[in-house]
Amino acid sequence: MVYVGIPKGQTNQEEEVLKTIQDGDSDELTIKRFTESREKPGALWHIYAAKDTEKIREFLKKVAEEQGQENPVDHDPIHDQSWYLDRSLRKRLHQEYGVQGWAIVQFLGDVVFIPAGAPHQARPRGAVHNLYSCIKVAEDFVSPEHVKHCFWLTQEFRYLSHTHTNHEDKLQVKNVIYHAVKDAVGILRANESSLSRP
After folding, report:
1. JmjC domain: from which residue to which, for each copy (predicted)?
2. Cβ(120)–Cβ(128) below 8 Å
3. Pairing between strand 3-5 and 133-135?
């Protein structure tokens, strides 16, 4: 979080932000960072374990059906980013499916790392709930430990509609694998003579 802009003269905005942080299920230490340390909060994240993805997807489809919404085959309630799990939906998700996430308030200067495939709170216009005007720098990367999971996500994106924003392979996983193997083979060939000695 590289910038958080707090408007001057709006006395009730601080109370609204505090209420949002509290309603977002933030812990006491996070609340104290805002109330006592006077740090600048920029965004509220809700992050879930990747292993709970299918349960969350099933829950969102169930809620959509209850509300009379369609669940087209070429759309995905997580990748569509059309749901915001408010406090009551988060509570219901925990009660019905045993899924509980982590509430993280990102303050000015904080970094938030989201593991591969971990669903995080989605809204129609972005991945997080912004508390104040803020600027975040985001970077996608593929670690060797998560190539398999990233490849699986890429395959999942292929089944979305062609007009879906996540239809393309943003991580370029196949290219990452190709170049990693190419570099490894190049290093092995360059050191072939020293590797073959007894």
Report:
1. 1-158
2. yes
3. antiparallel
Give the pLDDT score at 140.
74
Q: What angle do CA 118, 93, 168 make, to 5 degrees?
A: 35
The strands making up 129-130's β-sheet, listed across from edge to edge, are 102-107, 41-47, 129-130
CA-to-CA separations, 180 to 7, 64, 175, 176, in angstroms, rounded: 47, 42, 8, 6
In whole angstroms, what is the distance from residue 166 CA to residue 93 CA? 25
How many other CB atoms are found less than 10 A from the CB of residue 136? 18
Q: Whole-angstrom Cα distance, residue 185 to residue 107?
A: 43
Residues 45-55: tens digit of each pLDDT: 999 998 999 99
Count CB-CB contacts under 10 A for residue 124: 9
Letter string b/e over residues 61-70, b meaning 16 or more CB atoms within 10 A of that residue's CB: eebeeeeeee
A 10 A CB-CB count for 21 gives: 22
Beta carbons of 72 and 64 less than 8 angstroms apart: no
**Full-model pTM:** 0.72
DSSP conformational letter for 123 = B
